[in-house]
């Protein structure tokens, strides 16, 4: 039996690598002669750095940078195995898990640290970047990142805006991007994201993602209008349009700012799959197992498990979904998966489920392994 295990992380609980290895160990306890490959996955959000370094034999560079609340934090970026490509995981410097729940407010968060990581790598001569932009705590349109790179913004009175948080967007009246470090425009920047939202409007970054970052309904309206004004000023400055490009609204508009720098939006799942040679590994698989922290109808819209399942279907491999939980409308997932499973086997709190996720995952995977073993023996 040939099995490929290609999960996303169980965010806030288990890394994709840990999920994959736990499922592997559970299967080998029941089917010791199975041929199993573990291919950790990500979509540009939390876990992308670990996954790509694991897959390519790359190395981590630890640096100090500005965190989401403006404080100095220890963070890192990756140099992939080709020793040419830099991976920046924005969740690692401006991610939502870095902000305590009681302090979550996109008016107070910034992408400034992302710009600092870009500068750090530029100073070391690197010109190829993959920027994973999922899992952000921000809604500043990437203004903080642009400021870190040298961009300048003024208010109505002509004062230079020195604040770098989301609230600073409300004051922007004029823009000068000619002062941005020119080296960045000679770089290749891939924007790894599976989010297709435009920057503004009812499907934009503020309305769709603002609530989960702590924004009130009133703040969402204000931020959306501020983003539209800010983006229009930048577009007039460059005589180009970016804000309606699918994915420009990713990471609270960081996607927009990276497009301004000449970046190209690509599927985060595709980037990881290519780096890990996932398609080649799936080609000979009988079964593919994938999963994520919470699966529901939204999983079908470009998330890792759906991407993996569609790739498996291409080679007639059967795919199982094993996730931390199954949510609203998960029945729609039967379109891609033979069956869908939650690791939770009894009524428990979210805290308990996350604390004991590895144990519950092992038990659930072992049950599936027993079923496959006995069915194949019939």
TrEMBL record:
Alphabetical UniProt keywords: Kinase, Transferase
Family annotation (InterPro entries): Glyc_kinase_flavodox-like_fold (IPR018193), Glycerate_kinase (IPR004381), Glycerate_kinase_RE-like (IPR018197), Glycerate_kinase_sf (IPR036129)
GO BP terms, alphabetized: organic acid phosphorylation
GO molecular function, one term: glycerate kinase activity
Gene3D superfamilies attached to this UniProt entry: Glycerate kinase, domain 1, Glycerate kinase, domain 2
Pfam family, one: Gly_kinase
Protein family per UniProt: Belongs to the glycerate kinase type-1 family.
Alphabetized PANTHER family for the sequence: GLYCERATE KINASE
Protein name: Glycerate kinase
